[in-house]
Design goal:
38% of the residues lie in helices and 16% in strands. With 466 residues, it is an alpha+beta fold. It has four domains: 36 residues, no CATH class; 146 residues, Adenine-n6-DNA-methyltransferase TaqI, Chain A, domain 2; 60 residues; 203 residues, Alpha-Beta Complex (Adenine-n6-DNA-methyltransferase TaqI, Chain A, domain 2). It has a five-stranded mixed β-sheet. It has a four-stranded antiparallel β-sheet with strand order 12-19-16-17. Helix 5 packs across helix 6. The longest helix is centred in the C-terminal third of the chain and has 37 residues.
Length: 466
């Protein structure tokens, strides 16, 4: 059992009058003591802090302005995955929350504490009411350092400690502005900046390699410049609807036929996913007291294909925890809202959700080529065709298994495999650098900046970032 002894006068002097036990966890009090060793500044005194528009906003698919939400702040650098396009008048009306390069965005509702750096690749952009915009005064603190502090143990614990609410957890803008930031030596902040920049560059190079791989495959199919053409009217024979067992117009959109026709016209021939890959249909029975590493569809980063596992004891695993995953399995989400959530498993022993179709190499196509093919724009669009259901639309295993796939040449597949492997390695490198930056900030607070710089240089010397 853990407990803390706190003076009653201390509780009374708190503006929020917090007397819940969680607020005084021993780890929180220990972190307070460590932070008290340093001169600090409140976030609101070194940054402009605001949130996005409250209430209605208008979506305009032709607008260049992205509407970023909490999910776009999950991975250190703001991304555009699933972001709507915001009407210009909404952005103009809410210029205070219009993002600039090197701003930070911080999720303040629901899952509190996602913090990301804004770079040019997501601009122009604005935010919603559940995200805070933090524009750092660079003459006081370096944005990459503030980002790393907010993502490290000290920052995350402070954010969680000051989150309130019963049904939906939230962090007020007032509390965001009151977050204390230790003013560490500028040379140390520069080291952190260099490490974060190196991580960002690695991610960019990883993305470029993946896009190049997709371009190779789509060029061979004649789909590299293909544009979606949604037709308002077209004619189908009754026999086609009878054979498909579908009468919804979306299913018969000609754009889907164009994709399949391009695949079946490939000079090297075509097969099907089910013929080239074996489906993993393993049945899993958990032991109540054992801890498992569980992968659900929400565990997949749609932008990067990275997998985040959750440690869950068997008694608390969801009923849908059905598959034992092996290294090199390809997992593909069948749920429309997680379209694009697919990845190559990089370790044995994970437990996967039944919401995945799980595939293993078993033919002429390698896993890297399959992943690149399925994550391409035309194939992601095609995955909308066989959807069934309204509140929870899904596709079936057979929809994926029966999908035609071109028999790309060995030379093409080898080229794709090399690039995807390098892309994955760069992702791992970036993740390592960010973890090192985070730990270095913690060491600086726990010990001193010199010890942190020395440790950081040792951990990143092969990359040459610090």
């Amino acid at each position: 059992m853990q407990y803390s002894i706190v003076n009653y006068s201390y509780v009374l002097n708190l503006e929020d009058f917090r007397f819940d036990a969680d607020y005084y966890k021993p780890k929180y009090l220990a972190e307070d003591a460590q932070l008290d060793k340093f001169e600090s500044i409140l976030l609101g005194d070194c940054a402009f802090v605001t949130d996005g528009q409250h209430g209605y906003h208008e979506v305009d698919e032709n607008s260049p302005i992205l509407h970023l939400t909490a999910k776009n702040a999950k991975n250190w650098f703001a991304d555009s995955v699933g972001a709507d396009r915001l009407a210009k008048w909404v952005d103009d009306k809410n210029s205070r929350s219009s993002l600039q390069e090197d701003d930070l965005i911080l999720s303040t509702r629901g899952t509190v504490g996602y913090c990301a750096l804004v770079k040019k690749d997501v601009l122009p952009a604005n935010i919603d009411q559940d995200v805070a915009r933090i524009a750092i005064d660079k003459d006081i603190l370096i944005p990459e350092y503030v980002l790393t502090f907010l993502n490290c143990t000290f920052g995350q614990d402070w954010l969680q400690r000051n989150t309130t609410g019963m049904v939906q957890q939230g962090l007020s803008l007032k509390k965001v502005r009151e977050c204390p930031l230790p003013i560490l030596d500028k040379s140390f902040q520069e080291c952190i900046r260099g490490t974060v920049v190196a991580a960002y560059n690695a991610i960019n190079e990883s993305d470029n390699l993946f896009k190049k791989s997709q371009t190779v495959l789509l060029s061979e199919l004649g789909l590299s410049n293909w544009q979606t053409k949604h037709q308002l009217s077209f004619v189908r024979n009754y026999s086609e609807t009878d054979k498909a067992g579908r009468i919804d117009a979306e299913y018969f959109q000609p754009k889907y036929d164009e994709i399949v026709k391009a695949i079946k016209s490939y000079p090297g021939g075509y097969s099907s996913v089910g013929k080239e890959f074996k489906q993993n249909k393993s049945v899993f029975k958990p032991t109540a007291a054992q801890t498992y590493q569980y992968v659900e569809i929400g565990s997949i980063n749609v932008a990067t294909g990275e997998i985040s596992v959750s440690d869950i004891i068997g008694a608390e695993l969801p009923d849908n925890a059905k598959r034992v995953l092996r290294k090199d399995d390809v997992i593909v989400s069948k749920v429309r809202t997680y379209r694009g959530a697919m990845a190559v498993v990089d370790q044995d022993g994970l437990i996967g959700s039944g919401a995945f179709t799980v595939l293993r190499e078993n033919g002429q196509i390698n896993k890297e080529t399959l992943l690149t093919f399925l994550r391409s724009k035309p194939l992601l669009l095609w995955s909308l065709k066989p959807n069934t259901g309204t509140s929870y639309p899904v596709i079936l295993d057979d929809d994926i298994l029966n999908l035609p796939i071109p028999l790309f040449s060995e030379e093409t597949q080898h080229k794709v495999k090399q690039r995807i492997t390098e892309s994955f390695n760069l992702r791992k490198q970036s993740k390592h650098l960010l973890e090192c930056a985070k730990r270095a900030v913690e060491i600086a607070i726990e010990q001193n900046e010199d010890a942190a710089i020395k440790w950081l240089q040792e951990q990143t010397k092969e990359v040459g970032s610090a």
